[in-house]
Automatic annotation (TrEMBL):
Gene3D superfamilies: 3.20.20.210
Stretches of the chain forming a coiled coil according to its record: none
Protein name per UniProt: Uroporphyrinogen decarboxylase (URO-D) domain-containing protein
SUPFAM superfamilies, per database record: UROD/MetE-like (SSF51726)
Domain Uroporphyrinogen decarboxylase (URO-D): 276-413
BP GO terms, sorted: porphyrin-containing compound biosynthetic process
Pfam families listed in its UniProt record: URO-D
GO terms of molecular function: uroporphyrinogen decarboxylase activity
Tree of life domain: Bacteria
Length: 417
């Protein structure tokens, strides 16, 4: 890292750290969270980003150099895995450009009940076996043979165990094992490229707002196991089993978050909140089933000197007082649709507020409207510090003139001194 870039990096990182600590930095930090906007800005399609990893990295590189944000956002959070890996797995839990969505559009998650309502006891009995034999075959068509694997307990047969080996010659078992080996190598290549690119951006003087991602324990169940509707039904029909699952998975999320932050040398751990919104869950259920394990995750991260960075998706207008119960000056709450002015009023002395420039305004508004909204956010949320300027969510479609006006206005109008 050159001396000049080192100075820039330290200035930007200090700007972030001051805001997180509820102090006034020199100006309001700007973290735009560009996603597929990087593709549109540089003239490639999202499909090309999935199929040609180097094109994706170049799109991110050019966009960051042009707008010079105070922190960047991981490319591999937009392109989770390249097309070769997703296609090779016959991945079922996502549609991506050219595979279920148009070439010029973003990906789409595909929810399903990957764990059935009657399978809780099987899950409790042996989570590893369940994930291996049930979850993976349901998530990826070319891993369906894992359901046919001999029980792991057969290893206890000792010297007799080789007699089990013919079971691995089943064509579907062979396909699953070969797919795992091949796709693991391909995904490792992508992970290596992303790690190298993250270091490149750091050397250019740009901190990263986050590297490691974990889920709120309830979301881990509602997103990836039971689905939204399945988890909602379980709240009413088998709440004890749902609660036990959330509690058993909570330490997994804490461990992953802490280990990932330390390994990647970035204390900010990203936690997107999906299923605890006002529209999905009553306040009573939120207090009993969603918040306790999320709060424990937050406290575990803070205790380990990590910074929980929560993307609060949807509406949290009715539960701001609940989520206030965290250590002051240690967390970022990025609001998508919540009344951010009310959030600042309730939470401003406890957490750093982030967001929520409307994505729709960046896409369809005028330059003057963008400037006015930028100033309004700074006036209300930036007062006294503790605010990071960002959009409501990841930015895909936006007018470049609007983005430029947003960036310029934040830099000029957002100065504290």
């Amino acid at each position: 890292m050159s001396k000049e870039n080192q100075i820039k990096y330290q200035e930007r990182e200090k700007r972030l750290l001051d805001a997180i600590a509820l102090k006034e930095p020199d100006r309001v930090p700007l973290v735009p969270l560009f996603a597929f906007y990087n593709c549109y800005f540089t003239g490639i399609t999202p499909r090309q980003a999935y199929e040609e990893p180097e094109m994706a990295l170049e799109a991110w590189r050019r966009t960051i150099k042009h707008f010079q944000p105070d922190a960047t956002y991981s490319v591999n959070f937009t392109v989770y895995a390249p097309d070769q890996v997703l296609s090779g797995l016959d991945f079922k839990a996502m549609k991506w450009p050219g595979h279920g969505v148009p070439d010029d559009q973003s990906f789409q998650f595909v929810e399903s009940e990957y764990m059935l309502e009657e399978e809780y006891e099987e899950f409790f009995q042996n989570r590893s076996e369940f994930f291996l034999r049930k979850m993976l075959p349901r998530l990826a068509g070319n891993l369906r043979g894992l359901a046919k694997l001999p029980p792991l307990e057969t290893a206890s047969l000792g010297y007799v165990w080789p007699g089990v080996l013919p079971a691995f010659t089943d064509p579907e078992v062979t396909l699953a094992l070969e797919t795992l080996l091949k796709m693991s190598k391909e995904q490792a290549k992508w992970a290596g490229l992303c790690a190298k690119f993250a270091q490149e951006l750091k050397d250019m003087g740009y901190p990263s707002i986050k590297e490691q991602t974990v889920l709120a324990p309830y979301d881990l169940v509602a997103d990836n196991l039971r689905g939204t509707s399945g988890a909602a039904q379980d709240l009413l029909l088998q709440p004890e089993k749902l609660m036990r699952t959330v509690e058993e998975l909570a330490p997994l999320m804490s461990g992953l978050g802490i280990k990932g932050a330390k390994t990647k040398n970035n204390p900010r751990v990203f936690i997107p909140l999906h299923k605890g919104t006002d529209n999905f869950m009553s306040l009573r259920h939120f207090k009993n089933y969603y918040w306790p394990s999320l709060q424990k995750l937050i406290l575990d991260l803070v205790e380990a000197d990590c910074t929980p960075y929560l993307l609060v998706e949807g509406l949290y207008n009715s539960r701001l007082d609940v989520i206030k119960d965290v250590p002051p000056g240690k967390c970022i709450y990025h609001f998508e649709a919540t009344d951010i002015y009310k959030a600042k009023e309730v939470l401003g002395d406890t957490v750093c507020i982030m967001g929520n420039m409307p994505n729709s305004l960046l896409n369809t508004g005028t330059v003057e409207q963008v400037k006015e909204e930028t100033k309004r956010l700074i006036d209300h949320c930036g007062d006294g510090g503790g605010y990071i300027m960002s959009a409501s969510a990841l930015i895909d479609h936006a007018k470049t003139e609007n983005v430029e006006a947003w960036v310029e206005t934040t830099r000029e109008y957002g100065k504290y001194r």
